[in-house]
């Protein structure tokens, strides 16, 4: 067994022996598991209600095109890389897990209370994993708008990666992703801006929540 593997196991064993860490870890997994159970019916409901159509001057200036493969390539590769990095850092992993849960809760609430119709000239974005685990396969979901979960995901990647070159790469990919989302007219520009606020707020709350002696 390599020294890296030994250190990895010892680090997790040490943290899991802490009752508060174990509680935070298990509760984050339980809380996370609720979303797939409720998401399908929720998103099918919001898809059928009428909302507000915004006049977005940024989108009005952009000719729409389909960039689905690039969008999901960026997100999936970035998330896998982030999880590989976080699994080596148990405390950061828990901070991320709870920040993600809090951000997802904010997103559900915002979508519920801020009904929006999709932008003009939206090009459908099909996420195979989201359709299986979150949205279901009944309707294409286009009204899960404020705020952008795609952008929020990349903000997490930017924040939780630690090496300078990793962060630079994450910043560039996030900028590219935002451009692609706007080009595809998947989100209003306000959805993108909202993601920065709510994701930062979620990280701040999680960091306050995750306090224990290592």
TrEMBL record:
Membrane-spanning parts: 21-39, 69-87, 94-114, 145-162, 169-186
InterPro entries found in the cross-reference section: Sphingomyelin_synth-like_dom (IPR025749)
Keyword annotations from UniProtKB, A to Z: Membrane, Transmembrane, Transmembrane helix
Pfam families the record matches: PAP2_C
Residues of the Sphingomyelin synthase-like domain: 144-202
Top-level taxon in the UniProt lineage: Bacteria
Protein name in the entry: Sphingomyelin synthase-like domain-containing protein
């Amino acid at each position: 067994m390599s020294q890296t593997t030994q250190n990895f196991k010892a680090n997790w064993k040490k943290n899991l022996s802490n009752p508060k860490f174990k509680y935070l870890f298990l509760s984050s997994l339980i809380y996370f598991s609720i979303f797939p159970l409720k998401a399908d019916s929720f998103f099918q409901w919001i898809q059928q209600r009428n909302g507000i159509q915004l006049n977005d001057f940024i989108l009005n200036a952009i000719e729409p095109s389909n960039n689905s493969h690039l969008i999901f390539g960026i997100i999936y590769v970035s998330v896998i890389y982030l999880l590989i990095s976080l699994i080596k850092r148990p405390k950061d992993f828990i901070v991320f897990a709870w920040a993600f849960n809090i951000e997802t809760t904010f997103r559900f609430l915002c979508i519920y209370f801020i009904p929006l119709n999709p932008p003009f000239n939206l090009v459908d974005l099909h996420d195979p994993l989201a359709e299986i685990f979150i949205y279901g396969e009944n309707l294409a979901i286009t009204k899960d708008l404020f705020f952008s979960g795609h952008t929020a995901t990349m903000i997490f990647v930017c924040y939780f990666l630690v090496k300078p070159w990793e962060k630079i790469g994450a910043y560039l990919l996030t900028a590219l992703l935002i451009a692609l989302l706007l080009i595809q007219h998947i989100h209003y520009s306000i959805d993108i801006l909202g993601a920065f606020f709510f994701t930062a707020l979620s990280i701040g709350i999680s960091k306050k929540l995750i306090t224990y002696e290592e």
